[in-house]
Amino acid sequence: MSILKKIFTKSRSLNLEDGIFFDSIQAILGFAPKNLDHYKKAFTHRSTSKLNSEGHPINYERLEFLGDAMLSSVIAAHLFNKAPHGDEGYLTKMRSKIVSREHLNELGKDLNLIRFIESKVPVQHFGENIHGNIFESLIGAIYLDRGYIYCEKFIQKRVIIPYVDISRLEGKVISYKSLVIEWCQKEKKVFHYDIFEDNGIDGTRFFGVKLSIDGKVIAKARATSKKKAEEKASQRTYFALQEKMDKK
Amino acid sequence: MSILKKIFTKSRSLNLEDGIFFDSIQAILGFAPKNLDHYKKAFTHRSTSKLNSEGHPINYERLEFLGDAMLSSVIAAHLFNKAPHGDEGYLTKMRSKIVSREHLNELGKDLNLIRFIESKVPVQHFGENIHGNIFESLIGAIYLDRGYIYCEKFIQKRVIIPYVDISRLEGKVISYKSLVIEWCQKEKKVFHYDIFEDNGIDGTRFFGVKLSIDGKVIAKARATSKKKAEEKASQRTYFALQEKMDKK
């Protein structure tokens, strides 16, 4: 509530609804939005038939184009730096994996962006791709609102750190869960995956997982399936214990 | 010579060859490069078989991937802002026209970038695409050397201002030369295209054009064919006289 209070003090024109939206967006971005209108547009579906004062449609489709371009260039620069061994073909292939429709849908779903959608069509009628599309339009909105560097920050936080693992993309690591289990067995450590339901406010089913080793929680994760949540927690555990695990 | 002098004062390790390269690159970029190594790499062909200390090849191919990504995102943002009437499909189509292989080759050729190529293969053996490829790798080098904002500056100066004209890309304007001639005839003005050869230092044929109206030079241009140079000078004239010409 303290953040909400701060906004109201800063700008009296924000209504309660905007204040809540501001908080949610800030939590997702990891930094404060400046102009909420960009983010509202990022979640406006064409079915609303909104027009601006010049008669141009207001919806997320143009922002999707912009966000896609920013995502591609940030990922390109990341791969260029992190994979000095990879040639042009390798970099192109790795980037396609990261920005695949399927992956973007997963990213949008994990952030539960669909809760922000303004539409005349019931949300259940949308296909899977809506999740990835609004993930891209959100990036477009960040670019307009805060510029390229903040786009980079967001993509670092929400795409690169949690998901971009070059070994995995290269197919060297198939499952972090099996990596963790194997290591625990070798090292005679007791591991436990504690799974619980942790649903979204709109009723979407989510699963939380706590992975503990020798009674100590090493990593937590949340995803739309038990399997995904376990894998995510295992990957985080792997990164936490990498030095120890790589020795074996 | 004063710039050269400045470099030598700043850094005594620059030899004469580097000093000349620095000057040429600075003239192309419109700002000073910081680390010449990036630019040297941008013009190193794989036929040199150079390797760095980790055994990875040194050539422009990875930079080409990076530059392509930066170019796409800068052009995306430009079109997004300049064409508020265009939907996602329109923006995608316009961008493809701008970053087409043919267009990039023309851009690289106009800057005569091939003079910087280091290669074991004779330059004449390269196909047309070498021009566009090293134009892209140059953008990649700028990104590494000076960051995204400078990439944007360069693309603004070398791609957007001279070449990106939305009316033309939409096919509304077929030829600026005919536009200029038509206007001059209507307005009873005397126009003259003064064409002369203006070759590159490496012997590439270039043509210069001065377009004057009523005895006053309005625009100059230089290109690899007479027709292109005339068109470019006409486009510049159109932009210079746009207000007057659009009234008619």
Automatic annotation (TrEMBL), chains A, B:
<dbReference type="Pfam" id="PF14622">
    <property type="entry name" value="Ribonucleas_3_3"/>
</dbReference>
<protein>
    <recommendedName>
        <fullName>Ribonuclease 3</fullName>
        <ecNumber>3.1.26.3</ecNumber>
    </recommendedName>
</protein>
<comment type="function">
    <text>Digests double-stranded RNA. Involved in the processing of primary rRNA transcript to yield the immediate precursors to the large and small rRNAs (23S and 16S). Processes some mRNAs, and tRNAs when they are encoded in the rRNA operon. Processes pre-crRNA and tracrRNA of type II CRISPR loci if present in the organism.</text>
</comment>
<dbReference type="GO" id="GO:0005737">
    <property type="term" value="C:cytoplasm"/>
</dbReference>
<dbReference type="GO" id="GO:0019843">
    <property type="term" value="F:rRNA binding"/>
</dbReference>
<feature type="active site">
    <location>
        <position position="136"/>
    </location>
</feature>
<keyword id="KW-0963">Cytoplasm</keyword>
<dbReference type="GO" id="GO:0008033">
    <property type="term" value="P:tRNA processing"/>
</dbReference>
<keyword id="KW-0694">RNA-binding</keyword>
<feature type="binding site">
    <location>
        <position position="133"/>
    </location>
    <ligand>
        <name>Mg(2+)</name>
    </ligand>
</feature>
<comment type="subunit">
    <text>Homodimer.</text>
</comment>
<feature type="domain" description="RNase III">
    <location>
        <begin position="22"/>
        <end position="147"/>
    </location>
</feature>
<dbReference type="InterPro" id="IPR000999">
    <property type="entry name" value="RNase_III_dom"/>
</dbReference>
<dbReference type="InterPro" id="IPR014720">
    <property type="entry name" value="dsRBD_dom"/>
</dbReference>
<dbReference type="GO" id="GO:0006397">
    <property type="term" value="P:mRNA processing"/>
</dbReference>
<feature type="binding site">
    <location>
        <position position="64"/>
    </location>
    <ligand>
        <name>Mg(2+)</name>
    </ligand>
</feature>
<keyword id="KW-0479">Metal-binding</keyword>
<keyword id="KW-0819">tRNA processing</keyword>
<dbReference type="InterPro" id="IPR036389">
    <property type="entry name" value="RNase_III_sf"/>
</dbReference>
<comment type="similarity">
    <text>Belongs to the ribonuclease III family.</text>
</comment>
<dbReference type="GO" id="GO:0006364">
    <property type="term" value="P:rRNA processing"/>
</dbReference>
<keyword id="KW-0507">mRNA processing</keyword>
<feature type="active site">
    <location>
        <position position="68"/>
    </location>
</feature>
<dbReference type="InterPro" id="IPR011907">
    <property type="entry name" value="RNase_III"/>
</dbReference>
<keyword id="KW-0460">Magnesium</keyword>
<dbReference type="GO" id="GO:0004525">
    <property type="term" value="F:ribonuclease III activity"/>
</dbReference>
<keyword id="KW-0540">Nuclease</keyword>
<feature type="binding site">
    <location>
        <position position="136"/>
    </location>
    <ligand>
        <name>Mg(2+)</name>
    </ligand>
</feature>
<keyword id="KW-0378">Hydrolase</keyword>
<keyword id="KW-0698">rRNA processing</keyword>
<dbReference type="Pfam" id="PF00035">
    <property type="entry name" value="dsrm"/>
</dbReference>
<feature type="domain" description="DRBM">
    <location>
        <begin position="175"/>
        <end position="243"/>
    </location>
</feature>
<dbReference type="GO" id="GO:0046872">
    <property type="term" value="F:metal ion binding"/>
</dbReference>
<keyword id="KW-0255">Endonuclease</keyword>
<keyword id="KW-0699">rRNA-binding</keyword>
